[in-house]
Specification:
The protein is mainly alpha-helical and 187 residues long. The protein has helices at 2-19, 23-60, 63-79, 85-99, 103-118, 126-137, 144-152, 162-186.
């Protein structure tokens, strides 16, 4: 579906450029944009390889299991009675992997945790809603994707986003948790 939307937008831009007499410059801009996209992807590949390698070392060193082992016992308490025992480990691993910037590694664990929290009904329980809100706010100790994008764009200090990102996602997570707990009390 998305390919049709982007295709339509590009076609409209090209047609508009031709109607206004700027067809050549519109086509040239489209080609330059495509070239810039390829150059950015190549520049980001190195950053992603570095961060993925570092995160693999962190995971292999046992940091993910260690941190998730520390948060799992309290997780049942703050997630509420809807949190099933078999979902706790997957949810803890997911949140830990997200915290360490291992988004790709976190996804399968998050899907499995959500599947185990869903239960029998068609409606999501309080624990699943809270888990999804925490996942969406995604507090990250190392926002590798943003740092890689900034480096690829030629930022003089790509890592300067670290502290603001940590503060912003920390606040959004706290607001999300407070909102979920408030909604839970109202229902």
């Amino acid at each position: 579906m998305l390919q049709w939307i982007f295709g339509a937008l590009m076609t409209l831009a090209l047609v508009y450029g031709m109607i206004t007499g700027n067809g050549n410059s519109t086509a040239l801009s489209m080609l330059e944009g495509a070239a810039d996209g390829v150059q950015s992807a190549i520049a980001m590949a190195g950053s992603f390889a570095l961060f993925c390698g570092l995160m693999a070392i962190v995971r292999e060193a046992g940091a993910v299991k260690w941190i998730s082992g520390r948060i799992a016992p309290s997780m049942k308490k703050w997630m509420g009675k809807d949190m099933t025992e078999d979902a706790v480990e997957y949810a803890a691993l997911n949140l830990t992997a997200n915290f360490l910037g291992l988004g790709n590694a976190a996804t399968p664990m998050g899907v499995e945790a959500a599947r185990r929290m869903k239960g029998e009904g068609e409606t999501a329980g309080n624990a699943l809603c809270l888990f999804l809100v925490i996942n969406a706010s995604s507090v990250q100790l190392m926002p590798t994707t943003v740092i890689a994008l900034r480096a690829a764009a030629g930022s003089a200090s790509p890592g300067s986003i670290w502290l603001p990102s940590l503060i912003a996602t920390g606040i959004s997570t706290l607001v999300g948790i407070a909102s979920c707990k408030t909604a839970e009390k109202l229902t």
